[in-house]
């Protein structure tokens, strides 16, 4: 019966059947596209990102009023690339002469002698060989145990960033954070939500985008994107993973707050973070220049500002107005939890860094010690290592792991 119908249906039926088959073939030929479209529609559902009764239509430009759009975020990519280029010029033409002016002096580092066997072990197995490994390498290379220990100390020093590199990086960040803080303060000084935080939700989400807010957002986002791009070449400290988490959380927070028009809250959060960062970078600069007293006192000011802004203002004022106050205005929704979740990640990092800062500040105030960066390693000297090894050998025999107590501690400075 089916064959008879197809035979007598004529060419029109066959064309319809071919069209249906073509449509099915197209759908199966591009499953990725349909899946991406479904995921996009699911992800951007209005009920997920807006309070009940509000949606994307409320953020459409009209009546001369302009609103933030997700497509604006692409502007941050060329800005990030521009920051990378400007940084190279800045470090060569400004930071390097400034380092010379402040008397930043490089330590003379003795290079490890060419030794293929030790070099291979250093790259493939461990930069901190155990005592048994050192003895084995000693027999393999014909060098004494002390010579092998000395070779690894010098080789590790070669991989550590130079003092000039650290100074140039700190001076670049100091310059940006200081200018960003001044610009952010200028953009917010006449805004009511700087003084009454509840104003950040007045009329949400229909906030007209101001030019100052646009550039404040794009420049901050571009800068943090540039930090993420340059992370492989920047000085690596012991909180490297925490820094990555911070950069990613900051980029997500800035992007999300832009797309959902949480701009008033976003500008306040950026201002609070910039308030102390430039002080830390300036303390680092003077530390590298060996201006001990200047470094110490700037660091104490930084510690006070950091604790006030990150452990008081941020959680008890800003997060209160993003976590507690909004539920008195509208019912919680996914975007509300997502936004505050990112803020909570930042606050956990604030507590982690505050513990390091307080420990350093207490050491300075109680023992008059030099403020030293808890996150960085200092160079290992041949002389100090050998002296410690001799003392330990006299007392306890061979030193554990082939290193002196000083080297195992990796006291952190610079």
How is this structure best described in words?
The protein is mainly alpha-helical. It has 2 domains: 65-103 and 162-367, no CATH class; 116-160 and 377-409, Homeodomain-like (Arc Repressor Mutant, subunit A), CATH 1.10.10. The chain is built from 15 helices and no strands. The chain has helices at 2-29, 31-43, 46-49, 76-102, 116-124, 131-141, 145-159, 163-188, 211-229, 240-259, 263-288, 292-323, 334-367, 382-396, 405-409. The longest helix is centred in the last third of the chain and has 34 residues, at 334-367. It starts with a helix and ends in a 5-residue tail after the last helix. One of its GO terms (biological process) is ceramide biosynthetic process. Residues 373-414 are annotated as: Disordered. Residues 107-163 bind DNA.
Task: Identify the notable features of this structure and list them briefly.
414 residues, mainly alpha, 15 helices, disordered N terminus, membrane, endoplasmic reticulum
